[in-house]
Amino acid sequence: MDDKEARTLFPVTEKYCYMDHAAVAPISSSAAETMASFARDMAEEGRLASKKWFERIDGLRKNAAILMGTQAANIAFIKNTTSGIIIASQAIPSRPGDNVIIGAGEFPANVYPWVYSRGLEVRVAPARDGEVHADDIEALMDNRTRAVSISMVNYANGCRANMEAIGSLCSRRSVFFVVDGIQALGCIKVHPADFHCDFLSADGHKWLLGPEGAGFLYVSDKALRECKPANSGWLGVTDPFDFENLSQELKSDASRFEEGTFNVAGLVALADSVDMILAAGPEKVFDKVAKLTARLRRGLLDAGAEILSPMDPHTLAGITTFRHHLVKLDLLAKGMQRRGIIVSRRGGGLRVSPHFYNTEAEIDMVLETFRSIVDMARKAGVKSAETPGLSVLSPEEFTKIVSFEKPASGTALEAKIPTAEIISSSAAEAEADKAIAENVTIENVTIEKAAIETSSESAATSDTEAITADKSDSHASDKAEETKN
């Protein structure tokens, strides 16, 4: 699948420069049509339409296994990442006073299931330079450690954990290894058996490019032997459609963890999304993401950004989080959104997460927007992100403070100056600035709508090398402003 074909699958590209796959990804036109087709069938045929859609779900289980380098017997369907971690937390044999180790900076989906799980003590391994290390986890282990549960890729800074080292530690100490895989599956190679993983949970609405409310739980052969569902339902028994036999055993495979009726609409759309990832080639998907990420990071460093994501190549996934000392984070985010660039605030910075259908031209659009905002703030006399509102500026100076409007489809993306919000901290001042600067345009900050670009191998190599550049050692904390991780 080439870039042009990939772009045609995503109508969102006609309206936005979408760089927020670590939050909620857009679904493809094919997945959207599949959901609509299922809805039409159910409206017109009712249960008579079920057979073909359940066959599609059977195919999804097999393809999910292919994607994760395992067998269909190791795959269960879940409604979200949290539900998969809850299943693991309740299925792993334990007693009050036992403990589980999680990593610092985990998303809440990998915290609360353990905090409220049957009296387990929750220990937190520190993150050094943004990464949780196996030796710090081992230092917290004792003979009552039952599980280690971490994210394969951190949702805030994008750090990819050393799964092989942590998994080997867990295997050696006979501790269950549980993984939040939502920021990894669909972006990087995820073969749980390769790193001794026992449970890996991932919803499909991020890097898998599927809808919300449908995902996968990988369960290892060891976990299938030693762990039993805390909650069992009719779908988890050997013959779920033998309704009158109420003395059945649980299935021996991972589907024993499936309690009841599926989110069929979500799963059949996710099936389309997984088909697309497999057709594109999982390795090629990550190669493209890595290339775009390297280009982004090199440009950000050149523009004076502080990159909060770890820069070691082995930690690379699809997320880059950054900030600049001259521009407040919320105002930088507003400037991006007005340009039609969709990103999120996380981990004390602005989080950018491109996927395989994004282009180098779109990365350049992000960089040009960032440089423009920072340059205009600097020229306006801003000394730090905490500078108060600048209502003392003349109208001419206000014209140098840039915010952006979303363009009409198919038009050039032009910078405009409706307000001074990019650097003003006062709503009243912003309104006054808007009146002063209304309808002023800047001609030298115009970027044409992103075109499809195919770069040479040499460019890709140089870009990938750029991710090893040095950055300042800085740590920041940030309250969650949104509900999606």
Q: What do you see in this structure?
A:
The structure is a single chain. This protein has a 7-stranded mixed beta sheet with strand order 2-10-9-8-7-3-4, sandwiched between helices. A 4-stranded antiparallel beta sheet has the order 11-12-15-14, with helices on one face. Strands 16-17-18 form a 3-stranded antiparallel beta sheet. Helices cover 35% and strands 15% of the residues. The model is unreliable at 388-483 (pLDDT under 50). The chain is built from 15 helices and 18 strands. It has 485 residues and is of the alpha/beta class. It is globular and about 75 Å long. The relative contact order is 0.13. The chain has 2 domains: 29-280, 3-Layer(aba) Sandwich (Aspartate Aminotransferase, domain 2); 282-468, Aspartate Aminotransferase, domain 1 (Alpha-Beta Complex). Residues 453-485 are annotated as: Disordered. Residues 18-364 form the Aminotransferase class V domain.
